[in-house]
Design brief:
The radius of gyration is 22 Å and the shape is globular. By secondary structure, it is α/β, with parallel strands linked by helices. It has two domains: 49 residues, RecR Domain 1 (Helicase, Ruva Protein, domain 3, Orthogonal Bundle), CATH 1.10.8; 117 residues, 3-Layer(aba) Sandwich (Dna Topoisomerase Vi A Subunit, Chain: A, domain 2), CATH 3.40.1360.10. The protein is 41% helix and 11% strand. α6 links the parallel β5 and β6. The chain starts with 5 loop residues before the first helix and ends in a 5-residue tail after the last helix. The structure holds zinc ion (ZN).
């Protein structure tokens, strides 16, 4: 028999499924929610329900959105001919934060990883190729992560996008600002050297 009343056990079980939440943290959160006001607790429950009920993927770029097409794909002030390809919807926030990009996006929802059974069919690649074929794109920026999987994905996409009139570019990677080159691993250092520019 469980040490807690059934509804509490149920909440702890559900919270334990979240990433980075162990049994102890789940218990702590569950008791916190139990002690909080009815208004706060129901607001949390509603937020979770609304998230699943109202959000979907944009039919053009596959970003998470509550309106389809999303705010980027319908925005007349953004350059619809420059497409930045990212692995995850959360990557868009990182790029937007820079305020240096005024194009649109394409979210792959992952990266190629044959060892984990993720091939081109498992990613939103077909729709990207169709987009490049049917729209007059100026540039496709491959902004997948500088990991083995991200590089493989960028390489694959560059090959598949060959023959389109669009420029295919890859984001530069290298030493992060504020870091010491003494601690850079060799891949990062090699990339930083490759990505050097005139001053
Ligand atoms: Zn969109």
């Amino acid at each position: 028999m469980s040490r807690f009343a059934q509804p509490l056990t149920e909440l702890i079980d559900q919270l334990t499924k979240l990433p980075g939440i162990g049994r102890k943290s789940a218990q702590r959160l569950a008791f916190y929610i139990l002690r909080s006001s009815e208004q706060d607790a129901f607001a949390l429950a509603d937020a979770i329900r609304d998230l699943k009920a109202q959000l979907r993927l944009c039919s053009i770029c596959h970003n998470i959105t509550d309106i389809d097409p999303c705010q980027f794909c319908t925005n007349p002030t953004r350059n619809q001919a420059i497409v930045c390809v990212v692995e995850e919807p959360s990557n868009i926030a990182s790029i937007e934060k820079t305020k240096h990009f005024n194009g649109v996006y394409h979210v792959l929802h992952g990266a190629l990883s044959p060892l984990n059974g993720i091939g081109p069919e498992q990613l939103r690649i077909k729709s990207l190729l169709a987009r490049a074929r049917t729209t007059a794109l100026q540039e496709v920026i491959l902004a997948t992560n500088p990991t083995v999987e991200g590089e493989a994905t960028a390489g694959y996409l560059a090959q598949q996008l060959q023959g389109n009139s669009a420029r295919i570019t890859r984001i530069a990677t290298g030493i992060p600002a504020g870091a010491d080159i003494e601690y850079a691993d060799e891949v990062t250092m090699a990339r930083a050297m490759e990505g050097r520019h005139e001053m």
